[in-house]
Amino acid sequence: MRGPRFLLVLLLLAAAGRMLQAQAGQRAVPVLPASLKLGVSAPPVLGQWTAVPADLVSAAASYLGVPYVHGGDSRLGVDCSGLIYRVFHDILRMELPRGVDGLYRSGQRATSPLHVGDLVFFDTNENATISTPTHVGIYAGGGRFMHAASEGSHTGVIISTLESSYYKERFLGARRVYPWRPPVLRLTVTDDHQVLTDASPFPSREPLSVQVYNGMSGGGPLDLALLKDGRPVTSQRIVPGAQKPSELSIVPDAGTWTVKVNRIFKGRELAQLTFVVEE
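-> structure tokens emitted (279 positions)
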């Protein structure tokens, strides 16, 4: 890539990076203590989940200028769903449906604000009586998306904006086939007091499970308190196990949430974990 196109890609990736930082609410990527386990597979470094969308955007950007070829999914030529299939397969080893309709039924519905890496769908049929997804791209941040266009002034893999009149009128919605992170927050309490901040946000109004494991030298009941923006929401007595956790299921709205775990009999705080929920 050379000239204006190369500069556009740099600006796009920079914008995507800024969006990821803003949505993650972080300035740096700290290493988590071993006692804080996030997600099903417990990534060792906070921010591992939020790095994935940027990797997807980078992979898609590497196809810019590749010609449109119906049924293609290689650097010799791709169609719109072929680009999505190839990017997700190469970065995440995911086997997504090969067609637009199958992709439209995958994952979960994504609403505003869109996340980098979301799939955006359009109905490009002219004079159609029923809306049908016929075109797909990958959201790259800043209102832009990358896709393989089959017609128009520019064809092949290009960058377009959702605010352009053509795509704005034909936009059907977005799907999130790869979540930024699993909806599980795992905390292992130990004998040492911990104050932890999880900088990667959870989405608003989606189920979230807070799981507390016992990593102390002794057992006994604990008090788990949940606060939003510093105000108490709920509390409950728990007896966490080393293998089976105590669990609190919530559907949080936007705000700063805090989990506090205290010993009941001695009143000593064992852990305080803060996390952010965003619209």
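The first helix runs from residue 3 to 24.
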